[in-house]
Amino acid sequence: MRDQLLKSFVDMEELEAVRIAKELVETDGGPVAVLETCKAAMEEVGRLFEAGEYFLSELIAAGDIFNQIMTFTLPKLQQGDVSSIGTMVLGTVQGDVHNIGKDIFKVMAEASGIKVIDIGIDVPHEKFVEAIKEHQPDIVGMCCLITLGVDSMKQTVEVIKEAGLRDGIKIIIGGGRVSEAVMEHVGADAWADDAARGVRLSKELLG
Amino acid sequence: MVSPEMQQLAKERAARMQAALNLKEPDRVPFGGLGGDVIAGYAGISAYEYEFDLEKNRQAALKWLKDFPADSPTGGLGGLDNLTMSVAFVDFPDLANQFFMVNGPMNDALNMKFARFPGRQLDEYSSRQFIGGSNMSADEYDALIADPVKFSYETILPRIAGNLAELGSPASLAAMARLGIVKAQQAAEMRKTGAALAELGYPQGGGGMTFAFAPLDYIGDHLRDLPNVVLDIRKYPDKVKAATEAILEVLLSFSLQGKAVGATTAMFPLHLNEYLSPKLYREFYWPTLKDYILRLADEGMKSRLFCEGWHDPHLDTFLELPVGWGTAAFEKTDVRVAKKVLHGHTCISGGLETGVIISGTPAKIDEYVKRLLGDMMPGGGFILGADVGNLPRNTPIENVAAVYEAVEKYGKY
């Protein structure tokens, strides 16, 4: 049943995937099996995206299937069933009020086992600092869609440095306007202009 | 009175653009210029002042165009895509064309839920932003298909325009009256700007541009929101298709209203292109877009498509259009890759990566533009431009100057 779930999920057969997951989740050890299979499916979707076979619409559809299945799976999981490979503070930087890219990335990052603390959009520099102090993340993810966000990211990194918190964390920037040149300008550790690459690089940063 | 020299300059600029559109080599590579938030920054005013103070806006734009002259003007009032209103009022051609963008003062009258402006919902130094929103449920596709104009007016407009929430109420009538006053003020300012641009040697009539939109983008940007429309394609494919076909007819008549007042080119900002696989693009996006372009061509109009994000997987679809149909402007697709597919068929525009201009040095930028022009100029059919039209306000001015200097240095045929 796990193979069927994996296949229908990766093939974007939404109704079939949800049907199998509902059946599987009721079996002995089912909730963990469903969770693990869905995580594997999301990873495969990400791989297909990076290979150029899948596109943003498939990432969104996969996120939708994942969320649908998780609504009835998560309540059945025991404490300890869900392990995390690291924590990320994630937000769209000050001045930018867009959330679509951030939200697509968030679902994929969570599916990969990263615990995501979403601090929202138009996040002031100081709020990133406060969130780092509070949640002690391994990675900070900053998003922007508009070009204004580039300088806002740079300023946020500087404020994090001034607070003496830069050395303990990795910073990944993401969004439509980022590139290698922008990463160097901002002083981040990695960049991604799509969610699949963002998740892969975040996992690499986690070691 | 415009001097003969400036009249001549305007002719040269228009001819340069026209040559590229006709896939020929002009005297120098046509350059669409840089712009965006940097224009207000360069003038030393806030984004709020640039958005709301018409005189300051005009002075800032003119200062920029005087110091950084290009072949077409950038800057000015602008605004955010407000297509729902143009669709809702499409039966009133004198108005529909006035409404397709909403700027700060217009939004003070309307209070659009998708719009964010500096000094209002945003910091005074922020960029104006379009955030979209889900304004229609999936079970409303039938109403949309039956009559897109009626649906946009009666159902969507009250949902998206805070001050038109109750159509026909005193509050909504007051909002429309205020909008009329704002538009009259802005039209007077734009006439002044037009005269000043002529004195700076720019072709008149804003280059004869009107707007056009891929029908699926109307659903994604204004009705269902992007993530929802992408899911709708899988869940309700027939309804989505039927909706794009119904919307096409309305949008086409909107664009042709622009032709009636002198527009020769229709500008399409593409949005969902990057989201779709070639299969979905060809099934849900391209058929009505292609039909739109062909029917504009039948009316003697060229199209200019701004292909947001990565357009690589869809490049070959342009070849289904007749040679010289118009211009494809690219954001992330490498113009060199596009040239390999489209040279001799489609005019290509773009090439200047904003990230490089923000973060580079004049020397690096000089080298970057030199290489770019070396690859793109031979054979003509290329217009140099930025990947996205918005440089942030504190972009180093020496980097901006380096682009313009490099165009003069390396851009001559």
Question: What can you tell me about this protein's structure?
Answer:
The complex is a heterodimer of chains A (207) and B (413). With 207 residues, chain A is of the alpha/beta class. Chain A contains nine helices and five strands. Chain A has a five-stranded parallel β-sheet, with helices on both faces. In chain A, helix 1 packs antiparallel against helix 2, helix 3 packs across helix 9 and helix 5 packs across helix 9. The two termini of chain A are 32 Å apart. Helix content of chain B is 53%, strand content 9%. Chain B has 18 helices and ten strands. The longest helix of chain B has 30 residues. Chain B is globular and about 55 Å long. At the A-B interface, helix 4, helix 5, helix 7 and helix 8 of A face helix 12 and helix 16 of B.
Topology (elements, then pairings):
The complex is a heterodimer of chains A (207) and B (413).
Chain A: H1 2-10, H2 14-25, H3 30-50, H4 56-73, E1 86-92, H5 100-111, E2 114-118, H6 125-135, E3 139-143, H7 148-162, E4 170-174, H8 180-186, E5 190-192, H9 195-206
Parallel strand pairs in A: 1-2, 1-3, 3-4, 4-5
Helix pairs in contact in A: 1-2, 1-3, 2-4, 3-4, 3-9, 4-5, 5-9, 6-7
Chain B: H1 4-21, H2 38-43, H3 47-52, H4 54-67, E1 80-81, H5 83-88, H6 93-99, E2 101-102, H7 104-110, E3 115-116, E4 129-130, H8 141-146, H9 148-160, H10 170-199, E5 209-211, H11 215-223, H12 226-235, H13 237-260, E6 265-270, H14 278-298, E7 302-307, E8 326-330, H15 335-342, E9 347-352, H16 354-359, H17 362-376, E10 382-386, H18 397-410
Parallel strand pairs in B: 5-6, 6-7, 7-8, 8-9, 9-10
Antiparallel strand pairs in B: 1-2, 3-4
Unreliable stretches of chain B: none
Distance between the termini of chain A: 32 Å
Overall 3D form of chain B: globular
Low-confidence stretches of chain A: none
Strand content of chain A: 5-15%
Radius of gyration of chain B: 21 Å
Tell me, rounded to a whole number, the average pLDDT of chain A.
Answer: 93
Mean pLDDT of chain B: 95
Structural class of chain A: alpha/beta
Oligomer kind: heterodimer
**Rounded to an integer, what's the Rg of chain A over CA atoms?**
18 Å
Provide a count of the helices of chain B.
18
Question: What's the total count of β strands of chain B?
Answer: 10
Largest sheet of chain A, order of strands side by side? 2-1-3-4-5
Helix content range of the residues of chain A, please?
55-70%
> Approximately what portion of the residues of chain B adopt beta-strand conformation?
5-15%
Total number of beta strands of chain A: 5
Shape of chain A: globular
Widest β-sheet, arrangement of strands of chain B: 5-6-7-8-9-10
Q: SSE order of chain B, as H and E?
A: HHHHEHHEHEEHHHEHHHEHEEHEHHEH
